[in-house]
Amino acid sequence: MTDKNALIQPDRNQSAVPIHLVDKDGLDAFVKTLTAAQRSAVQAQKFTADGYSHAILPDGDGWFVAAGVANSASLSSWCMAKLAEVLPAGTYRRVGGEPGPALLGWVTGQYRFDRYRADSDAEGPRVLLTKEVKQIDAALAEAAATALVRDLVNTPAEDMGPAQLEHEAQLVAKAHGAEFKVTSGDALERGFPMIHAVGRAAARSHAPRLIEAQWGDAAHPRVAIVGKGVCFDSGGLDIKPGSSMLLMKKDMGGAAHALALAGLVMQHKLKVRLHLLIPAVENAISGNAFRPGDVLRSRKGLSVEIGNTDAEGRLVLGDALARAGEDNPELVIDFATLTGAARVALGPDLPALFARDDETASQMVACGKAADDPCWPLPLYDGYKDYLKSDIADLGNAGGNGFAGATVAAMFLDRFVPEGTDWAHFDTFAWRPAAKPGRPKGGDALGLRAAWGLLKARYG
């Protein structure tokens, strides 16, 4: 995509095309300020101030833009994003106010994933000016974090396997001077046996690994961020049908979210001792693949009977969460593309949020709403613990029925987080099946800015 830093600039009264944001309540008053030729242009373009609509109006030798918004007094992150996608390349300025939160959508609306294209179809850049200079860095940082998630998720598994995911994590860690450690291959068998079991069938070039980075003052509160990094999920021996495998390059979307969030924490120097953990594997099929009916050891010491090899994400997260808990974190946040049940319940736009502490859940929801990154709480219901019972092991990895799949998966993870630890779990889709302004089809960050808002509020 175009250099994000070129897309928002401080307003120093340079030449720019004016943008008038108009809502339906203000349309009549706006039209009265126009010349006869401009009113004719409004009518010809059938501009009625609907959200995301716009009209280009003549102004002497130049022109300006009238853009429809839901509420011109309370802008959203996305209300100007469509303009950033469709207006001609150039420099623009909002008339009568500042873009505020719309700065984010202006940048994310110009995102393009063109790694594999000979010719990019992007036009631009479209530059937006603002006098609120202090908001520029914050908007660009969040847009860059969003772009990182999108890039990682959009990249096919052959080019974004465990080794490549390790490389991306190392780049972020090195940029901020974080300690970096990787446990890989057969070295996982003793300390992280579930990560090893899930990933051992992959080719050597895609060998499993646990990626860790630590950053910050040890005297500050410890915060762990964990992300599911299943770089491709065939389903294992319980193989998925072909149609269900088409999007499985995105099964490392949780890792992409965790890495992007950790980057924001370090970039803004929050007063935390950060611990990033990414179990990176490919759930493949070969002669040494783990099997239905196997009983796996775990780092926590619990034994797990495998009822379904396609419920592998909770296994690798279990070992990573157990490792995170050994350092007594004050807060643990994990992201995972974990269950289809969450999508059935909430659709693609809403990540399911599970939290032990009601205050944490409420704060996360509020932060998501404020950032136009909504999430929706689902219950950690003890009554469903029986769904994870095993006849021969401490617990099973898959419920024996189709009920409450997202909650049952979250209850499995709950067993690997120390009692009393504040823990929030996002079951996110990490994908947008249809484009919306500022949010193109493909990989996307869903829940990232909600979690970032909570961390800023607590530790900023």
TrEMBL record:
Gene3D superfamilies given in the database record: Leucine Aminopeptidase, subunit E, domain 1 (3.40.220.10), Zn peptidases (3.40.630.10)
Q: Name one GO molecular function term.
A: manganese ion binding
Q: Does the keyword Signal apply?
A: no
Q: What is this protein called?
A: Leucyl aminopeptidase
- Assigned GO CC terms: cytoplasm
> Which protein family is it in?
Belongs to the peptidase M17 family.
Q: Which GO terms describe its biological process?
A: proteolysis
Q: Which PANTHER family is this protein grouped with? A: LEUCINE AMINOPEPTIDASE-RELATED, PEPTIDASE B
PROSITE patterns on file: CYTOSOL_AP
